[in-house]
Each structure stands twice: as C-alpha cells, then as structure tokens.
User: Fold these one by one.
Assistant:
Number 1:
Amino acid sequence: MRSESKELRRREIVENAFALLAQDGYAAFSMQALAKLSRSSKETLYGWFGGKAGLYEAMVAENAAQLELPSAEAEDVVGELSRFGADLLSVLLGERAVLLNRVAAAESGVETALGEFLAAKGRDHVMPKLAAYFAVLEEHGTICTEASEKPAEIWLSLLVGDLQIRRATGAIGLPAEAEIRAQSASAAALTFRLFGANEKTRR
C-alpha cells in the first residue's frame, strides 16, 4: 500500500474508532469490532496501532493535528493569537476532546498510559511551541516579560479557565462559535496588555 493510501486508510480507521468509542466506551471497545466496522483485519490494526492504548494515542494525535500554531511574523499579532485561541478552544471543548478526556479520567486507575498520551500529544506538545512563539515576540520587541513570567501559561489560563473541566463534567455544553471567538479575542487582548503591547500589536 502506498504511503498516501496507507495514511488515508489509517485516518479512516481512526474516524471509525471515535464512533465506536463514543458508542461503547473504552472498556467495551474492541479491536475486533473496529476491524469489522473498518472492513480491515485485526492483524492490520495491531500492526499499525499496537492495541487499544496505541489506538487511543493515535486518536489524541489526530484530534490535535488540525491546529495551526500562531505565527510570530503575522502583522496583526493580537488577531493571530486570537485566531489560534479560537481554534484551540474549539478543539479542547469539542465532542472528541471531551470523549478522550472522559475516557482518560474513567480509566486512570487501570490504564494510566491514556492520561500520559493525552498530556504528551496535547498540552506537553503545544506549550513548548507556544513558549517559543512568545519568545520570538519578545525578541521582536512586541512584548516585554520578566524571566520568571510565562506568557504562554498566562494566556492559556485566560483562554480556557475552567471551561474544559466544566465541559468534560457536563456542566456546560459546547459554547457557540461567537462565544468562543469572543473569549479568545479577550484572552489575546488581555495577554498583550499584561505584557506591554506596543504599536506593533495594534496594527
């Protein structure tokens, strides 16, 4: 199978896995059921993913892959961070992220690797890149920070707050797109205000 065809097939299987996970839950989820739904063989699934935990890891990675990190070279830096924040918030509060978080929490006493995968492919993957993004902004003179300050952490706190945990526990539903954009715009504006936004951030 050509690499392009294999990747498309792999992503199709991951899509089917999301559907089964939502339907059956992680404990009842089986590779055999996924093989049947995907019209594939169990051998292929185990070869590609190495089992349920490996498949879960692939699902986490697939959910995060849609994010396009902000560019420090953008002319409108506030708008660029606001754009990324809205995308990130949509992913974090989306049905798939909620499903993955609930599975990791429910299985934490049995399958501790799931929480580790969630962190490694999620926060632990994105935060160093965001830190590098803000470091470039500081090099450009767009923001000014002290060594002890972490603008990436502060921005994320302003953006997400307790929305993700409230969403995962069912306390709130998925916010409307307009609400997500407004939340992100506010977080971006406050972050640049906190770290000394200059004229470059207002273009």
Number 2:
Amino acid sequence: MSKSTTEKLQDAALARFAVQGFDATTMNEIAADVGIKKPSVYAHFRNKDELFMSLIPNIVDDELNHARQVLQGGEGIKQQLRAYLEGIQERFEQSHQVRFWIRTLFAPPVHLYDVVMPPMHVFMEDLERIIHQALAQSDLARPEIGLSVDTLAMTYMALIDSLQSELLFGGAHKYQRRLESVWLVFEAALRTGRPA
C-alpha cells in the first residue's frame, strides 16, 4: 500500500528535523523532498509547528512498544536492562525517528516547549511503568537493603536520561564510556546482599 501525501510529508519532515533540527528545516525543503510545491503542503498541515507536533503521537507509541518488547522481566531481566541501554545508541544511529525523539526530549523548539512537554511527561511516566512492571516480574528488588522496585525503576530512568543526554550532546564515544561506568555501578548495586 502506497503512502499518502500526508505520510510522505511526515516522513520527510521527520528526517529533516532529526538531522537538521526544527529551526534549520524549511517547508520548502520538506515539499521538495516529497516532490510537491510548498503551497501544496498547506493542504495537509497549517504550518511547520503542526507538522512537527503531528509526529509525536506515533513516535510515543513506537517507543513504548519498543520498551515493552525489550523489557519483559523474568530471569533475563539484567540482559534486557543492558540491551535497552545499548539500544539507545544503535537505534539513534540507525533511525531518524529515534534521533528526532531524543532531540525533541532534550531540546524541543523553544516556542513549542509548553505544547511538546506534556506528552513527553506522559511518555516518561508510561516508560517508568513498563520498567517497573518488568522489574516487579524479576528477583532484582532487594527491599531489605533499600533497593525496592520503585527505587530501581527510578534509578534506571535516570540512567536512560543520562545516556540519551550524553549521546546527543557528547557523542558516541562519551556515551560508550558513560554506559560502561553507570552499568558497572548499577550492576554492583544489584549484587549487593546476594550470595557470591
């Protein structure tokens, strides 16, 4: 099934926003990428803001579905937690959608901040619930030493935030160094109080 013009415009905008950012992207470029004239874009979207905002709901769904697929709990939970963190860089480098997503989380267009952030906050709450559920279905929680499921879920969310930020602003090399360091500490905390 071929894509509609609206979907083609969204794909073109996503790629441009992911690579160039919102401010550097023009409606002329997006129209040219789709092979239509700029005035035709306005039959689908009133302006660049509306086009930008139209991308967020689908990306929220895709990102939450990805988290659900990777973080399922059970005996493989540590491997799942590590895989999700490693996937941040892999997915960022391979997907305009993920690049757009991380850029929007940390540096949304200033004039759209108040509109962009509410769905982002809902997303973060939903992601934390998925992580919480996966941890609750594992044996990692150690309430007797203060590592409750809540504490682990919030700590893991902090790792995600830290790694996404380092990847976006520091680059892949710094991201890798930070991943190794934070994982070492997180894994050590998980081992605390367990028999060797």
